[in-house]
Amino acid sequence: MTQPQLVEVNRYRFSVETLTEIETNAYAANNWPLVYILSDGKTRCAYVGETTDTIARLGTHLKHPQKRSLTTVHLVSSERFNKSATLDIESSLIKYMSADGRFRMLNGNLGLSDHNYYQRDELYSKIFRETWDRLLEHGIAQRSIEAIDNSDVFKYSPYKSLSADQQQGLIEIMRSLVDPGLKNIVVQGGAGTGKSVLAIFLFKLMHSDLDELDLREFSEEEKELRELLRQLKQRLPHPRMALVVPMNSFRSTLKKAFRNVAGLRSDMVISPSELTQRHYDIVLVDESHRLRKRVNLGAYYGAFDKACAALGLDKNTCSEVDWVTRQSDKAVFFYDPDQSIKPSDANASDFDNIKSSPASKVMTLVSQFRVRAGRHYVQFVDDLLNMRLPAGEKFSSRKYEFLVFDELSDMVKEIEHRNRSYGLARLVAGYSWRWISQDAPDLYDIEIGDIRLRWNRTNIDWINTKGAEGEVGCIHTTQGYDLNYTGVIFGREIRYDETLDQIVIDSVNYHDRMGKQAIKDPNELKQYILNIYRTIMLRGIRGTFVYACDDNLRRYLKRHVESYKSNVIALPDPAKPLEPYVNAVPLYDLRAAAGGFSELQHVQHEKWVPVPDGMPVGKNIFACHVVGESMNKIIPDGAICLFRLNPGGSRNGKIVLVECADSQDGDGGSRYTVKEYQSFKSHTEDGTENLQILLKPRSTNPALAAIELRKGDDEHRYRVVGEFLGVIG
Fold first, then answer.
1. Taking each helix axis from N to C terminus, what angle separates 195-206 and 164-178, rounded to the nearest 10 degrees?
2. Smallest Cα–Cα separation from 559: which of 384, 397, 373, 400?
3. Rounded to an integer, what is the distance from CA 60 to the centroid of its chain?
4. pLDDT in tens, 381-438
5. In terms of DSSP bridges, do strands 328-335 and 280-285 run parallel, antiparallel, or are they unpaired?
6. φ, ψ of residue 451 in degrees (nearest 5)
7. CA pair distance 457, 613, nearest whole angstrom
8. Contact yes or no for 427/433 (Cβ under 8 A)
9. How far apart are CA 714 and CA 385, in angstroms?
């Protein structure tokens, strides 16, 4: 059914001459709040704003030395807009257009906050989605919202809102940078506390025109932030800055993010060894716990020694931490000791020495931005791995899926489903298997029961590479990244000893040679391995699934984490003869869509399928396939489902199979969908009541919308065919 448009997008040439034409737009003429986009296809520059005085605002932009060169204006308007809504649409467009990559944004708005207001989630989120669809039609946008949400450019955008925690951290860093008595700043924070976003935000701030900056979202701190920035720009008008990232894969990802932010360049993101090439005014180090010392470096020994010689440092006593302090006037370390995962990582004492110096400032970030379950989940995982949880305590959250699987095949299947729904759902494992497929691509690295898997084929930006969803990543390819769902495989190097009542490590089954060489204390190795699992269990934004190879460890995890329960009913013994309508029902060849309506199809009886014991059988019972993800909380994609022919009576709240007859089709075909049925009376403008029917999805993807049917126009086309009874295969 066609829905009325919630928003209008109108295109005009951006010039003094066309202001008269724009005045004919009813929203612009009547001082209605709206959002506008100025752009130029040749220079690929754009600017987003909101206003209640469109003509005056556009006239001002036409006098601006940079904006007047833009050639096109799009007006985004709606009768439902108010000031709060347009501020929200404006900030969302800046964030999404910046990450989309079609245009380089000229906006100086940094730290855009999310406005909360009446009907924001119920109505205005739909308006923004429809706005984006219109912009795709107009060529202003080029990628879907879902693709942008999963992109690293979006996640590390300086246009993202900062929490009060991050804002205060930024102010403290700025104060320290202007303080001549301070040299080093240590910003401590666990996984997902926004350290990388804060580092990129600082870069963007330092490379923006002070007069063009819009910092209104900083509220009471705006005046101080402007003054601090003014002092820094006065002292360092063209600052020599670098963001040091120790891990090669994550460094490549941040280079890509920098390329898409106006004022930043990819060569501002460097490796530790590149510090030897010049001295910097300010150096920021992300993931600084992964800076290295001269232990287990493998092929990197030569480069390490060469860098130490160039800097005049003793290779046997220094670490890359010393390189940073030697080559910078000011250094900012973003640090989490719990993410140190191998012996080559710099000693905690190196950071302790910096933190204890009177020339250093230490601050802490505590807000959780990655995991939807928040700090509670982070602490729970830490307590779970270190066996600090009370007996009987189980994790519980409506915002997060945290499950233990008895079968690896089930976890692989669920990760595949989540990847189809959300993207960025990946399998990650401890280093408990050799990487034999590196030299023999036809071989499998990981074999557990009937499941055979391979390690990641690339070390660079693995989670975003084609085919990554069919591989298994490790700590080295996932640290620093966000995933929507993580399927974690605990290997044979970690197990639970029931007699000792503790988690123990089997070093023989730990195959990261550089991760255990030279370690003499088994407790040290255990801590590294626990840090690895803790780190990969904090990657998932929406959920974490866990499978343990060790049966005892799996039982221990299930004491505190809910077990996965498949909603597929076991089929009866296939050897038992099938008797129509006694233990079997007809399987029709229709493919009902768990989404919109399926393609036009003629339905025929395909074959008989067995019905599990305890499920109804009879001439009014039939089965068919259901495809898609809109019912995946109940019905897996591709499942065979059992239905009862429409029994009549109330259907409210039931899951039903609905037929849409296409009356215009000469062959009389039909389309089908499976949804939860809801009906209620709605009031129309003339005071009468109208029966409204919603076919609602039951999906892990909240973006999927209900199908709305109305009595009258649609009742001759739509028919409830059957009532869902269960999944049988």
1. 50
2. 384
3. 38
4. 999 999 999 998 999 988 899 999 999 999 999 999 888 888 899 999 999 999 999 9
5. parallel
6. -90, 130
7. 45
8. no
9. 56
